[in-house]
Amino acid sequence: MTSIPEPATGDEGMYMRIAWGRLKPGHWEAYQDAFEAAYRDAALPGLKARYLIQDVTQPDSGFSISIWETEADLAAYDRSEFLARHTELMKEHFTGVFNVQRCRIAAAHQFGSASPGDL
Questions:
Q1: Do residues 35 and 53 touch, judged by C-beta distance below 8 A?
Q2: What one-character DSSP code corresponds to residue 99?
Q3: Which of 61, 51, 50, 57 is nearest to 28 (CA)?
Q4: For residues 90, 76, 73 and 41, what is the CA-based torsion angle, rounded to 10 degrees?
Q5: Helix residue ranges, H only, the chain
Q6: Which DSSP letter does residue 4 get?
């Protein structure tokens, strides 16, 4: 990834899926490895970017953020066999505390030339 995608100029814009979850103590590294393996070569229609974010104050919790071209692409992902399979594989790491929000990106700004991949 080289930059944060800009919202589309049409009426529909772009969409973000924000999932937050709490992992079992000590599971972060195994979860991250499994997450990266699952999404490394995934060709998902409309997926523009994906981030796995670990909470620095509660290291056994974090966010998965994905950015989608259209609401229809996001909805298709939410209903996909890929997500069902991924969720089944990852559930061993979760405590059961999990929340997902689906959002329309109303505005986006990028500063400097650094991208998340440069970190």
A1: no
A2: E
A3: 61
A4: 40
A5: 28-39, 71-78, 81-90
A6: P
Cα-Cα-Cα-Cα torsion 81, 77, 102, 65, nearest 10 degrees, comes to: 90
Please state, in angstroms and rounded to a whole number, the distance separating the CA atoms of residues 24 and 87.
Answer: 15
- Alpha-carbon span 42 to 9, nearest angstrom: 26
**Quick one: tokens of 50?**
């994906």
Query: What pTM does this model have?
Result: 0.81
Q: Rounded to whole angstroms, how far apart are CA atoms 87 and 5?
A: 26
d(CA 38, CA 88) in angstroms, rounded, equals 12
Q: What is the pLDDT of residues 16-41, one digit of tens each?
A: 999 999 999 999 999 999 999 988 88
Name the one residue in this structure whose structure tokens are 């998340």. 116
